[in-house]
From TrEMBL:
Belongs to the peptidase T1B family. The keyword Membrane does not apply. PANTHER family: METALLOPROTEASE TLDD, PROTEASOME SUBUNIT BETA. This is Proteasome subunit beta. InterPro entries: Ntn_hydrolases_N, Proteasome_beta4, Proteasome_bsu_CS, Proteasome_sua/b, Proteasome_suB-type. It comes from the Eukaryota. It comes from Chrysophaeum taylorii. Residues 1-20 are annotated as: Disordered.
Length: 243
């Protein structure tokens, strides 16, 4: 009897949606360069203010041409990657040689994010979509409301405030691969210094005419010797209690 009442009450309860992110990843950066597109992100997923998961891969491949990076709620990002895996599986099952281009993946994700927003059940993510197909690089960004745009440099999270100005200042269309990597590493280093949800363990990925590739996580070289970081209490730089 009690069980039946409980089941009835549960079935009549209002639908509940996620109202805020819980386990989150921070910035994803992307830029076009001479030979293709490069994406970068760290590997931290924070549980509130706790740096809990330090090997969270936030850049994934979709098919042969496309890379997708995600910031925001990591369970929602996992749901998005599963959607893209299903889409890729359907293409392979058709066995007709067709494969979605990066721009088509971008349009698909824009529609998904906008549809979920209209249902008041958003996927709490900002996504960077990059790829290379038929000699053309592609780079775009989609947020949880379905707002989408394309650009030569993009960034999500705190990267939109701290890294994007650096990228816009130093970017040029003929960047070599090494220069593009150095620029992204500089931006990730700035984020590690200034964003308390960032980590110095990062991944880089690229999409070129040869396909897509994602690096294994590695540590950035950092330097905390600046006086502003080592000052003693009350601004004492010498540690002797004086100015």
């Amino acid at each position: 009897m009690a069980g039946g009442v409980a089941e009835k009450m549960e079935s009549s309860s209002p639908m509940r949606h996620t109202t805020r992110p819980i386990v989150t990843g921070t910035s994803v950066l992307g830029l076009k360069y001479k030979d293709g597109v490069m994406l970068a992100a760290d590997t931290l997923a924070s549980y509130g203010s706790l740096a809990m998961f330090q090997d969270m891969r936030r850049i994934s491949k979709t098919g042969s041409y496309t890379l997708v990076g995600g910031s925001g709620e990591m369970s929602d990002y996992a749901a998005i990657t599963h959607m893209l895996e299903d889409l890729d599986r359907e293409n392979k099952n058709a066995n007709d040689g067709f494969e979605f281009s990066p721009k088509e993946i971008f349009y698909y994700l824009r529609a998904v994010m906008y549809q979920r927003r209209n249902k008041f059940d958003p996927l709490w993510n900002s996504l960077v979509v990059g790829g290379f197909k038929d000699g053309q690089p592609f780079l775009g960004c989609v947020d949880l409301r379905g707002t989408a745009f394309e650009d030569d440099v993009v960034a999500t999270g705190f990267g939109a405030h701290l890294a994007l100005p650096v990228m816009r200042n130093k970017w040029r269309p003929d960047l070599e691969e090494g220069e593009a990597r150095a620029l992204l590493e500089d931006c990730l280093r700035v984020l590690y210094y200034r964003d308390c949800r960032a980590l110095d363990k990062v991944q880089l990925s690229k999409a070129t005419s040869e396909g897509t590739r994602i690096s294994e996580p590695y540590k950035l070289e950092t330097d905390w010797a600046s006086a502003s970081f080592v000052a003693g209490p009350g601004g004492d730089l010498d540690g002797d209690g004086g100015w």
